[in-house]
Amino acid sequence: MRLRFLALVFCLSCASGWAAFQDLDLDARSAGMGGASIDTIASLGLAEGFVLSFTHSSIFSDLVRGELLRASLPFGRFASLGLWLSLVRDSDGVYKEESYALGYAIRPAANFSLGVAVKMMRTRLNEGLETVRSNPYIVRSSSSAFTIDLGVSATPTENLMIGISLHNALPAKTSLSEEGEDIPTLARAFISYKLASLAPAVQQAAMRRVLSGTIGVAELSQRADQTTLKLGLESGIGGVGAIRFGYSYSGGAIQPGSSFSFGLGLRLSHLRVDYAYQVAVGDLVENSSHRISSSLEF
Predict the structure, then answer these.
(1) Which of 10, 47, 113, 197 is deepest in the core (most CB within 10 A)?
(2) What is the DSSP letter of 9?
(3) What is the domain range of residue 90?
(4) CB-count burial class (<10 Å; 0-12, 13-18, 19+) for 188
(5) What's the domain count of the chain?
(6) Could you give the 3-state DSSP secondary structure of residue 78?
């Protein structure tokens, strides 16, 4: 299976470019909810305080590894700044993807955010390997391109948030072959709802407490011919912890099928630690993934 995976990376990601920079749910909190999340560029303008987080991911039974560093902070009364650095690589040290983004968002109204990010994307191959040097389809060992991400979100009510985003909105090509396609645009729509508004209608006290700390998130995304639906729940535990469940289904040429996920979170003052376990259903043998994040929030 490892050889089949590396063949996929070479043939699709390197030669054509259209399979590169997949949405791998590198954040542990969202991964625990099936990858469903409040898009960071869409909601950047609604950020309160300074947030710094780092995530390490072990994907497909450690065939793929990823790191994500994120930071956001208010900038004046009606704006925010964001920084995202991500690295995805195979465990054999053959292929690597890097992404660096700087975002800015404004809040023209108290419940509305409009954000944009300038992003550099780079792909690299280990040119010291004979399999890379002798591959006739590979004409360069690295390639980079610039693009932008756009997002908008709103909170029509205290418990509801909705938003849409467009990633890789400008054509960007990081193909390592002579011929290649642009990295596909990723369009996302999400909705998040706090179930606390339903608690007063429930008679059982225990259920009311559960609902008061539970959030439901749904996301629908489109990337080339790949449509993905992600659903997730997060329920607070005693004000210091959280438990998460998620499901996702994807149809298309790349990563088709379903996956189930489970996550845990722990908050200690300004520190939050999150863990997610995800298992894919289908023919993939190396089907489990782990992610762990640590965040500082002020």
Answers:
(1) 113
(2) I
(3) 2-297
(4) buried
(5) 1
(6) coil
